[in-house]
Amino acid sequence: MAISPSSLFPSLLLVVALAASALVGGGSAAFACGRGSPAAGLPFCQPGLPIRARARDLIGRLTVAEKVAMLVSRPAGVPRLGIPSYQWWSEALHGVAKVGDGVHFGGEYPAATSFPQVISSAASFNASLWELMGKVVSDEARALYNGLRAGLTYWSPNVNIYRDPRWGRGQETPGEDPAVSARYAVAYVRGLQQPSGGARGFSRLKVAACCKHYTAYDLDNWNGYDRFHFNAKVSKQDLEDTYNVPFKACVVDGKVASVMCSYNQVNGVPSCADPNLRRIVRGQWRLNGYIVSDCDSVSVFYNEQHYGSRPEDAAAYALKAGMDLECGGFLGQYAESALRQGKVSEADIDFAVTHTVAVQMRLGMFEGDNQPFRDLGPRDLCSGAHQSLALEAARQAIVLLKNRAGALPLSPSRLRTVAVIGPNSDATTTMIGNYAGIPCAYTSPLKGISSYVKTVHAVGCTGVACAREQPIDAAVEVARHADAVVLVVGLDQSIEAEGRDRLDLLLPGRQQELVTAVAKASPGPTVLVIMSGSPVDVSFAEVDPNIAAILWVGYPGQAGGAAIADVIFGAYNPGGKLPVTWYPQSYVDRVPMTNMAMRPNPSTGYPGRTYRFYTGPVVYPFGHGLSYSKFTHTLALAPSQLSVQLVGSRTEQLNSTLNRAVRVNHARCDGLAVPVNVDVANAGDRDGAHTVLVYWRPPAGHAAATRQLVAFEKVHVPAGNRVSVALVLDVCTHLTVADAYGIRRIPMGEHSLEIGELTHTFLLEADTLPRYK
Ligand SMILES: *[C@@H]1O[C@H](CO)[C@@H](O)[C@H](O)[C@H]1NC(C)=O
Ligand SMILES: *[C@@H]1O[C@H](CO)[C@@H](O)[C@H](O)[C@H]1NC(C)=O
């Protein structure tokens, strides 16, 4: 028997791995095109030439086997051209993470700044914060790369729509709203990717980000369904106005360098074999970058979903669909035989490799030691400024859900002792959620609160599961003798995680019993702090008169405990808002997690999903969040009437206005950006930040969202002051609905804008002007 490539492969990998590990921590850089490289002087090594020409030059020099070896996430390199091996898989969801094989903390590089989990950062509704965090993360990523401890290709952020409150990975996302997710994607990706200062042209990348997981992936493991086998049945309408919105924004506006396809199928086609990768992501959205599989996706769709009768078919499906890089080894094993069998062409392989190599060149990986950002090093990890931003981000992430009779903030000088109780009261790793790294340091809630007042501590539950025998009585005793109680309860990765969806929305085990008993025993105010990525049905606490205040802190990152204490004791005025609807338990009793439909179905009683479509009871609505101040809105400027001119032929125009909704591509869109100005007054006695949320309510009759957030802006308003906020609505992007074919249309008729307590109505009609040429 001939020696198969697969039996050669492991030993090759071993040699390369040894060579790479010898370099870790050493001084010499493992970059292509360095001094003494056999390729020095060749066109692909010349930074002055266009990337496209350099990539073409390199591809032209490679053998088929060398190119096939580049289709996988751990290519061995091409020693004869001085190209070192590379690990594509690094992660930086909310700080450089240790997930993925590309990052190795240690030595002079022991840790990185750990920001709040994404769902928490989303609660800040502050796009400049998102971008700034991306910038800090990419500074630290470059520092690690310079120390040969990380790659430059980061498979973050996760911008899937948080569709169902049970999803174990909802914590990784910016929430349920497509507009917020889109804005988050663009801001964070810009922060990661954009080289500032010393930039050499627009196409240069500081690090390469990746928006994942395209598309409609948001079920991990629920009730016998898992992500490796799940076929998400999604309507064209939901794809267009919900699932694809953040991906499109990430590519079109964020100019992301990569998109990852997912494990699941969408309407019977595995995402990584879906020709829409090439047609939509690369074709329509014009991705300038590479498409990577989720890890082992190709093997998963071949072996688990039985898509393709031979492995070569599966390899061909992926390459033909437009996947350029596989996290795993399937293509390394089968792409060459697929080529021999005529299932793919060499051009298909070149097409893929061109995209990955071009990204490496934009990162500067083919410029020898002459790397951009060479000045970033160990002192840039966990710098004072970076750690302050982690604290600031945690403060901005905190959402005040309930504050009975202004119970908060507490005044530390009036309290002799505060009891700090609960399974998350001294949390450390729980605070950083998943896809995390090694943080610089932790401030747990107990530590944070202890820096303001004298504390007594009891866990009450030995872990978040809180089953069977628990030290609840001891906690009640501790509460009885304190002047106030802070109860920190909630979830952790043992309850919600990748590969682990929840079955219910309640506090696990006996946590509710602990909360109720402690609050009853406490002679002073009880503050309930919920630490969780996903919503919890805490309606019992909302109505319990013994519970003075409730905070949701998400997974607040390394500085979480300091931020929690700053809010409780009034050093920081909370301004976060919920990025997801908090449903009651009865919601998940009625709704199978497998139903992907966003829209309600009156004939089956299906209630629909998220604030955009679901109109039933909630524990707390999307956008809810109190402050220690009171903000009011006045509308200073808004349209009273709008008209849209039509373009195209008479027939097109007639057809286009069917059902009183104009196809966007039959509308003359220039000049249809409408200013909306809002004045925000702070009637309280504390300075504070407030996010103006502008919701649009389209005319009835288009199976559209009842309300859709179309703009938001966070502003700082000093006590007793007024600040004016200028927003812009673009008719052709914001005021559109998707029809049943997924085609965007502008509905005619009465539209409203809802901003806080204000409602403003205006009429939008199609103009009957002569035909536009
Ligand atoms: C009208 O539009 C629909 C799609 O919206 C299309 O399928 C149909 O062919 C159009 N009819 C004409 C006459 O253009
Ligand atoms: C948004 O975040 C940035 C970065 O932390 C901060 O400087 C700014 O004040 C925040 N905006 C508001 C209105 O709070």
Give a quick rundown of the structure:
With 773 residues, the protein is of the alpha/beta class. It is built from 23 helices and 25 strands.
Report on this model:
- There is one protein chain.
- The chain has 773 residues and is α/β, with parallel strands linked by helices.
- The chain is built from 23 helices and 25 strands.
- The strands form seven sheets. The chain has a six-stranded mixed sheet with strand order 9-14-13-12-10-11.
- Strand 10 (417-421), helix 15 (445-450) and strand 11 form a beta-alpha-beta unit.
- Helix 6 packs parallel to helix 8 (245-252) and helix 16 (472-480) runs parallel beside helix 17.
- It is globular and about 80 Å long.
- It starts with a helix and ends in a 7-residue tail after the last strand.
- Mean pLDDT is 93; it is low at 1-29 and 769-773.
- One 2-acetamido-2-deoxy-beta-D-glucopyranose binds at residues 126, 128-129, 132, 392, 689, 714-716.
- One 2-acetamido-2-deoxy-beta-D-glucopyranose is lined by residues 651, 655, 741, 743.
**Class by helix and strand content?**
alpha/beta
Shape: globular
Runs in which pLDDT lies below 50 for 5 or more consecutive residues are 1-29, 769-773
What's the alpha carbon Rg, rounded to whole Å?
Answer: 27 Å
Give the CA-CA distance, first to last residue: 70 Å
Number of strands: 25
Helix content bin: 25-40%
Please identify the oligomeric state: single chain
Report the major sheet: 6 strands, mixed
Strand content: 15-25%
Provide the list of bound ligands, each named once. 2-acetamido-2-deoxy-beta-D-glucopyranose
GO molecular function: alpha-L-arabinofuranosidase activity; xylan 1,4-beta-xylosidase activity
Signal peptide: 1-29
GO biological process, one term: arabinan catabolic process
Subcellular location: Secreted
